Amino acid sequence: MRVRIGVLGPVLAWSETGSGLDLRGPRHRAVLARLVVARGRVVPVDRLVDDLWAQPPAGAVSAVRTFVAALRRALEPDRRPRAPARLLVTEGPGYALRVEADAVDAWRFEAAVAEAATASPRLAVALLDGALGEWRGSAYADFDESWSGTERSRLDQLRLGAIERRADALLESGRPGEAVPGLDALVAEDPWREEAWRLLALALYRTGRQVEALAVLRRARSLLDERHGVAPNARLRRLETDLLRQTDPGVEGAEQVWAATTAAYDQNVGSRSSARLESTVGLLRSLALTGGTGLGTAQEQRAAAVEAAERLGDPELAARVIGGYDVPAIWSRSDDPARSARIVAAAESALARLGSAAHDVDRARLLSVVAVESRGVPGPRPAEAAAEAERLARGLGDPALLAFALNGVFMQSFGRTGLAPERDRIGAELVEIATGRRLPAFAILGHLVRLQARSASADFDGADEHAAAVDLLAERHERPLAGVFTDWYRAMRMAAHAVPLEEVEAAYRAADARLDGAGMPGVRRGLLPLALLCSRLQRGAPLRFADDTDWGPYEPWVRPLVLLERGRRSEAAGSLRRAPAPPGDLMAEAMWALTGRAATALGDEAMTTRVEAALRPAAGELAGAGSGMVTAGPVADLLEELRASRDAIP
Fold first, then answer.
1. What residues contact residue 67 under an 8 Å CB cut-off, 6+ apart?
2. Whole-model pTM above 0.85?
């Protein structure tokens, strides 16, 4: 049985199920607390006696042994008589507590504080929120002995420092308003912490409360002068000077560099210079990876930049502007097919106008654009463009260009079902190239591709490793959109396992909330209801969808099942007959699986045979899991149902 011990408040202990353990009287808890302070080291019985009593009574040693015996029964209730204790052990002249490193709240708190000291701002906030949440009151609140007082003071100083580090991380993350309440409480609790005053003033200033920020600094100066007769430290004094000048020391340097650079650019680069278009593409690449509205804006302005470059009539400039936007793409459906078609047409036009004079770099980039932007487009041209771009990039020996070309190859790797192993190889090469050449955006792409492929083969341990790698890279390089895909993956992972349906649906809804506003309508539209439908089908639960549910692009393959659920069998049969073959994309296996379920329910032999032929190459996969988003269950099980259904038809 795993035990949890709490000392950040009254001393308590819990079983692994969360039930409180009976630690008996205050001296029993004192023995346990004293052993926690020792951090696994042996505490001699004589020391325990001295720490428990100011004037030890006769028989104190025997009493300590009695306390230890009672604690052992509480901590290890299933231990057999005369079996050696595992947690509270006897060693030499005393006792030691041997529990896991995460079993004691104070130990978890210290570990998190240590990790947060060197973590990125966003990770530090998460770590410290959890660490500070461990506190239930004053540490070792039951006791007032010297050993507990020393430890209480040490932990409390760590707690105060953790509040400051959390505030600093919030400021670095651009969330000053969230830092103010904790800092307000901190300076009220300990008004002599100059760093807390400085952070509070800075947080207030960054939330637009300059008068309050200056008042905080004056109050700090007054307290320090009146109570200690000392002036504020140099950082506090410098901050007051900066705020009076209305300059922010945390962002001044970056803002000055930006302002100086853009001013010089505007002064020296003419408004009609082609260099402006090329520079704009570079900015749009960065904007697309920022999250929020950045991706949608970048996509719109990228199309505008392409149109502007075409109007200038310089095919080489057009090639650089069109091919310079090498933002990695993971989803196999365009957010705006019409816009993508215009960009493909511009790329093909530039290729035709350059002809044999085109540089191989320009050709490879333009062909990669054709391959990436033609995702889901039928016909041989997109795949041919992807293959030619890859050939050129390998010949040029340019890792960044090859990564872009492989993105196009990935987008054209859906010619039939069951190609997850091929995509896994593409992802592995992307990871290798991008890691070796410090191309974080393509490293994230490679790990996401492998996450999808491993999910398709039900290798969730492998997929977990790639999800963790994505999250780490996203945190380190500020790529918030990547987390959208790992959130959906973890919800899908729950759906693929025996997790209660209500928990699966809650996870999917939370993932969908994060996807809202991420600038990826091609991913989001219809995805949540599809995920819920697949989960309910696998568990045999009622579908229960409103008539106005927006199924997005999945409607033709979902509709027969929804109609069947409502008892409209003839309409369902007609809808099934009209359903086209699913497009070649990440959802192909899932759409075929839904079609197969409807076909077996309706006894449609022709459609059953068609689905069976389409899914046979994916017999070893989970239908839809290759998307990293949803799963419609094992393809092998569905194939067996299809065969049985066909055999049962007279």
1. 24, 27, 28, 31
2. no
